[in-house]
Amino acid sequence: MGEVLLEVRGLTKRYGKLVALNGFSYRFEQGIYGLLGPNGAGKSTLMKVITQNIAMDEGELWFRGMRIQGYQAQYIGSIGYMPQQQRIYDSFTGLRFLYYMAALKGIGKAAAKAQIPELLRRVNLVEESRRRMETYSGGMKQRLLIAQALLGDPSILLMDEPTAGLDPKERVHIRNLISEVAQEKVVLLATHVVPDIEHVAKEILLLHKGQMVCSGSTRMLVETVRGKVFEAKIPKEELEAAMRRYLVAAVMPEGEDVRLRILCRDGSPVIPCEEAEPTLEDVYLYHFGENA
After folding, report:
1. Which of 84, 226, 274, 280 is deepest in the core (most CB within 10 A)?
2. Whole-prediction pTM value?
């Protein structure tokens, strides 16, 4: 077991009658943790509480074995945050934006001057750093937001939907970059896109309606739905009835027939079928169903 850098105990957050987080608890060591769940699951609220952008109603945060109350400045200085929305100044150049963010974080000019060129290199934006951000692609803006999150070399890095709206090539680039910068850090990566975390996360936490449904490595979670995933080949005219009866993960036309990937919580489908190898996407659909 490694050192627990961040521990969340009984975290609850309400917005009026809506309970966004309900007694969430977890212990985070070094590594990448995927926060997986549908929209409204509580992923962004959890990150905002951890970063102290909003106050919790109940619960405690512990950092390196100490409760953060009383030394919040030290704790906040150990956090890097990449928000979901690209709310950055389009009239700024990438370089100016990083110096501006360094100033907001209380990083001195000398330290910023030492860090920023290396961060631009790591996110592959050296040549574009003097361009206005209004000319940046979505992927370039996301990489710049990763760079600002890394200012000050934080030990806890939180990323909210870091690949949202990106094309497949940029998604892969961002995922590889996250794996590269995750050395000796706790990285919380919130998403509802399964491939973003399937192969990079040390552990995956499934959240729904503010509560943790289950957690574990990809391999462990996949094993929980083994024997519940099937494939069946049926005539096209039977598709509508099958869609009403089963949780269908995929539909693949095959001539006059269709091949279905079906998830069953109890037993097996009554139609002729064969058991299929489960995936993390099956785990997601099994738990969240139509909410996915």
Report:
1. 280
2. 0.89
